[in-house]
Structures are given as structure tokens and as C-alpha cells.
Task: inverse folding
DNA sequence: GAATACCTGAGC
DNA sequence: GCTCAGGTATTC
């Protein structure tokens, strides 16, 4: 799943079901997904309650009442499901039960690119899952955005995908916000005016907010913590629409590869500097 | 930067 | 059977 709007939807749907509850059992079926070890996570979270459920970029952070943070990254296909019964599905790698006997947390991840981490303190979080992560993309102030993006060489799309620059944007929302802003994915930020970068900031915020409101994009297997898919995929203007007509101008949407990721854009609407 | 690697599944 | 897929880390 997982770009910022999807992860934020998981956060919002899981938080009410988890706050104040105390993990009592941790079962790990695939040890490599748990850092540093399943034993460390189990010992870390059992016996203290979840006091806060936060998100930074695509990373979920469950703060424990005593100390420490239980971090969850969904990778490409990770799902957190809160349910009374084990979902009837393959690839459930972690199950956490609670001392009240209520709904359990199930972590499912077919491609195994996600992970869980036990971070005993903020330093472990900063040096581990949060290492090198820039400010969260949602609500990033314009000045901060401009400061971090303007003047950079390289390709604009690669910069948007770089979690060190800002955290949370992935392939879908990079393509969608570039189209809305009328900017070509291959242009270098240093060749853009302040007005163009300001427009990009605006459209990125708007795209993230709309996606969030529609429950995220369910392209392959994304569902929230209650198993519900999002609907923003129906509002995609370019993502995975290569060969189809642009809704704005009717031109054929192109698909190219940038930073190893498939990239979709309208050659007419997004031709700044090209 | 680009290529590759980590995995499984869907779609053609 | 092949290609592609929301992510990230590591290589040259």
C-alpha cells in the first residue's frame, strides 16, 4: 500500500482500536520482518499500553506508555488489520494479542518489503526507521518545501520520491501532483521558477488531502485497518493511464521510466522546459 | 545517477 | 512464460 495518504488512513483507522490497550502476546511467523529481533519486540511492547499512534512519512509509530516505540513500515504490500479473528488470507506474518482479549493486530505482507521495529528510545528511532527522513510531506510549510527542493539538480520526480527531501510521497502522488502542477517529471528543480515550485507545493498538498479524504488509492491490495479499500484510484489523472487520453487536453499520456519507477505524464500539459 | 536485490502475485 | 507492481537499501 503505502504512500502517505494510505498510511495515514491506516493510522486513523487503527488508532481508536489500539489506544490504551496492552499487548500481551506476540507471534512472529517471519523473523526477518522484525527488527532487531522478534524477541526484542515482544519483550519491548508486552505489558505496557499504547499511548499514541503517530505517523511520519510512510512510517507508523506506536508509542508505548512506559518507554519506546513500536514502528511499522508497510513496504509495498503491507497491511495492518485489526480484527477479532485471523483474516482468511495468506502471508500473515505477525499477530499481536492484547490483555483484554479484544481484537488482535494482524500484520500481512505478501511481498515482505515492510518491517516492524522495536525502538527502546527516541535515539533508536532516529538512528533506525527515521534515519535520513525529511519533514513530513503533508502540511509541509511552503518555505520549508522551497528551501529543500529549489536549486536541486537531478530530476524533479526523483527529488519528490527522495524521502530525505520530504517524507511520504511515492510513485502515485509524485505523478499525480506533477500533472496537476503542469510540470515535467524530468525537469531539474534548479530550472524552475519560485512560482512553479510554489504551484507544485500547492498541488501536492491538494492531491494528498483529496486522496486522504477518499481513503487513499487501492491499486493492488491496499485496505485500511478495517479492511476497507480507498477510492482515490478513480480520480487518478495520469498514474497507470499510459496510452489513454489526458482528461485536460485529450493528448495521449506517456509512460517512461524515471529513477527505476514507471512514470506517467501528459506531454502537452507537462511540457515546462521541454 | 543507474542497476540490482529483496519477495509474491496479477495480468497478459 | 514474461512483465510489472504502492518501497527502500546497496552496489558500481
Result:
Amino acid at each position: 500500500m503505502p504512500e502517505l495518504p494510505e498510511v495515514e488512513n491506516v493510522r486513523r483507522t487503527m488508532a481508536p482500536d489500539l489506544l490504551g490497550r496492552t499487548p500481551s502476546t506476540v507471534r512472529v511467523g517471519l523473523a526477518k520482518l522484525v527488527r532487531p529481533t522478534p524477541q526484542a519486540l515482544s519483550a519491548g511492547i508486552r505489558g505496557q499500553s499504547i499511548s499514541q499512534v503517530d505517523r511520519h512519512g510512510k512510517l507508523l509509530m506506536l508509542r508505548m506508555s512506559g518507554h519506546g516505540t513500536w514502528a511499522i513500515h508497510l513496504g509495498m504490500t503491507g497491511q495492518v488489520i485489526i480484527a477479532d479473528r485471523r483474516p482468511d488470507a495468506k502471508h500473515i506474518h505477525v499477530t499481536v494479542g492484547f490483555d483484554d482479549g479484544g481484537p488482535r493486530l494482524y500484520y500481512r505482507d505478501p511481498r515482505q518489503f515492510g518491517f516492524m521495529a522495536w525502538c527502546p528510545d527516541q535515539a533508536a528511532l532516529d538512528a533506525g526507521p527515521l534515519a535520513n527522513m525529511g519533514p513530513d510531506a503533508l502540511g509541509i510549510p511552503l518555505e520549508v518545501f522551497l528551501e529543500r527542493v529549489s536549486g536541486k539538480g537531478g530530476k524533479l520526480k526523483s527529488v519528490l520520491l527522495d524521502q530525505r527531501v520530504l517524507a511520504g510521497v511515492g510513485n502515485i502522488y509524485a505523478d499525480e501532483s506533477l500533472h496537476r502542477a503542469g510540470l515535467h517529471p524530468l525537469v531539474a528543480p534548479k530550472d524552475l521558477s519560485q512560482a512553479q515550485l510554489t504551484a507544485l507545493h500547492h498541488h501536492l498538498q491538494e492531491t494528498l488531502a483529496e486522496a486522504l479524504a477518499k481513503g487513499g488509492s487501492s491499486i493492488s491490495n491496499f485496505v485500511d485497518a478495517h479492511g476497507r479499500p480507498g477510492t482515490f484510484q478513480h480520480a487518478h489523472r495520469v498514474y497507470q493511464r499510459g496510452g489513454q487520453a489526458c482528461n485536460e487536453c485529450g493528448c495521449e499520456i506517456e509512460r517512461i521510466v524515471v529513477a527505476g519507477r514507471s512514470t506517467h505524464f501528459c506531454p502537452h500539459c507537462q511540457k515546462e522546459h521541454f
